Amino acid sequence: MTTRIGVIADTHCPEFIEELPPRVFATLKGVDLILHAGDVNAPSTIEALGRIARVEAVRGDHDRLLGSLPETRELTVEGVRIVVVHGQRARWIEEPNTLLWTLSLGFFQPNSGLPRSLRRRFPDADVIVYGHTHRPHARRVGGALLFNPGGVHQWNPMTARRRLEQHPEYGSSGAGCRSRDSCAASRRRRSASSRSTRIESCPGSSRSKVGPCVFGDLPARHA
Fold it and tell me: Which of 106, 134, 142, 199 is the most exposed place for a label (fewest CB within 10 A)?
């Protein structure tokens, strides 16, 4: 029997979106396990996903309220060794790159070397699930599958302005809303004209920008 694993990342809920879009639940319906690759943002997001299946999540750089989450998880499913990690790097790398990424509304791509960096960090993994970039990615590096489902939250002019109004400390473990009240205040500033989050079911197409994904058959272990 094949284990179906749902993969999701960078929900930023309720920091930048008030609730998970319905397409998230439609896509993940029927999975046996959900892996969240960080920037969850609040316990309520894990609780919502937990109504679908068991959730294994890691802490991202916007998870101040979720300090109990580990930075990495390693689990074995049907003999396949899976690592889940958010993917942020040292602050001196992240801070200038993330500022440019925010100001460019995501067009600047500072993370092209991240998959190989993660492969070197986890040489024994068969699958490495990560987030952080908000862009889908699926390819093999050194025999392992590097998989990023893309971010549920995507930058637009409104969310970029709200992010800068928070005077963020880019790349630090305390980035993101500093409290539930500040998250709520940020949401109240949202304009009705803000674009809705677009969800795709899988990052296999170059047109795909965001979304949760579902693994069907897991790759065989490499030698």
Answer: 142
